[in-house]
Specification:
The chain is of the alpha/beta class. It is built from 18 helices and 14 strands. Helix 9 links the parallel strand 6 and strand 7.
Length: 497
Amino acid sequence: MTNRSTLTRGTDTLTRDALTVLQPGFTGTSAPDWLLRRLGEGLASVGLFGRNIATPEQLAALTAQLRSERDDVLVAIDEEGGDVTRLEVRTGSSFPGNHALGAVDDAALTRAVAAELGHRLAECGVNLNWAPSADVNANPDNPVIGVRSFGADTTLVARHTAAYVEGLQSAGVAACAKHFPGHGDTAVDSHHDVPRIDVDLDVLRSRDLAPFRAAIAAGSRAVMSAHILVPALDPEYPATLSRRILTGLLREEFGYEGLIVTDGMEMKAISATYGIERGSVLAIAAGADAICVGGGLADDDTVLRLRDALVGAVRSGDLPEERLADAAARVRALSKWATASARTGTPEGDSGVGLDAARRAVTVTRGEQGAPVSGPVHVAAFTPVANIAVGDETPWGVAAELERLLPGTTTGSYTGADAGSAALAAAGERRVVAVVRDEHRHPWMSRALDDLLAARPDTVVVEMGVPQAPPRGAPHIATHGAARVCGVAAAEAIVSG
C-alpha cells in the first residue's frame, strides 16, 4: 500500500465525520484489517457485493466480524431479487424481481416477497438494502433498468414501491428507493456515461417523481440519487451533484428527512467527468449524506482519498463544515434505527413466496403449433451482454430445470448473426426451446428467432426480459425476469403444456 499524506490529525471530529459518510466496499469473504481499522476511526457503513458472499453462514460470520469492531455499523447490499442478486449471485435468486411483481400486480404479494427477502438479509446481519428501484420504465430501450422496474405505469410503480418499502422494513432492514429523480426514461447506462432526460417538469412530476413520493410516504429510510442530467430540474449538474434536486426538491419540497445516498461514485457518469474526489465533495455539498463507492474501487486507498478530499474541502471553504456534520448525523440516525430494529427480531416469513410469485407472473400466449412438449428438447439461450448492475456471474434461463424435468435435454448458448442457424444445427431432431432476454432491444436476437421459427414453427419461445416484442412461438412464455425461480416457473409451464 502506498503511504498517503493526510490533512487530518488523529481521529478528530472532522475526520470521523468524513469517514462516517462513506459506504465503501472491499474484496474477499472476510473483513480486511484496513476496513476494521477504519471502522474504529469512524467509518459507519460497509457495502457488500457478490464477491463478498459465498454462503449465508459465511455472510453472517462476516457481518458479525464487522460488528465486533463497531456494533452499530450499517451493512448495505444491492439485493433487488430478480436479475440483480448478491445473496444468490452464483445460483440465481429465489425471488422474482420488480417487473414480475408488477406483472402480477398484487401489492400484498409484493409486500410479502420484500418481507421474506428482508428476513433473509436480517438473518445474515445486513440492515440496509439499496432497493427497491422506483424507476418508471418509460423507455423500453433502457439498457440498465428494464426488468428492475415494476413497469411503465406510474400508478402501478408507486403502489408497488410503497409495498416493497413496507415489507422490507417490517423485517428491520432499511429500504432505499432508487434512482432519484427517476432513471427509467434513459437510453444510456450511467455506468458508462451521463444519461440525459429531456422532458418538461410536468412530465417529471406526474410520471417519474410520483413513486418516490410514495416511497417517502411509506417511510423509506433511504433514497439513492441517480447520475442523470435532468435539464428541467438542473441544466448544469447531474442529480447526484445537484443542490436543486437533492436539497431543493427532495428535502425542501418533498419534506424528506431520511438518508440520501449516492449511486456508485466510480460509475463513469461521475468518475469520468468530475473524478470521485471532486464528485464526492460536490455530492455532499448538494445534500447527499452518504457516498457509495466500492463496486469497482474497493481498497483502503480509495477510502483515504475520499476522506481527505472531504476534510480538505471543509478546510478550504468549499464544503460547509455544518453540511458534512449534518450528513454524518443522518448516517448515525439510520444506524440507530437499524440497530434498534434488529433487536426487535424479525418475523418468520413465507419461504415459498418467491416461487409462488414467479409462477403467478408467467404469461403464456398459445401459438398455432403449440403441441405439448413431451420429450427431451434443445434449449437455445440467446445471450445478450449483461449490464454492470446485473453482472455476468449469475446463471439464468430454463435449461437446468428442463434437464431435470425432461432427461436427455441438451443446451447451448448462442449470440450474433448466425445464432439461429447454429441453434438449429445443434438441436438436430429435438424440439427447440429458445430463451431470449429483451428481444426488442437486440436485432440479432429477433433474426435468430425468425430463422428458428421459419424452419421449426413448433419452437417454444421464452422471453425472460421485458416482453415488449409481439409474442411468437409455440407457445410464447413471458416470465418478466430472469431469476432462478422465473426459470423454474417457465420450465413448469413448458412441460405442463
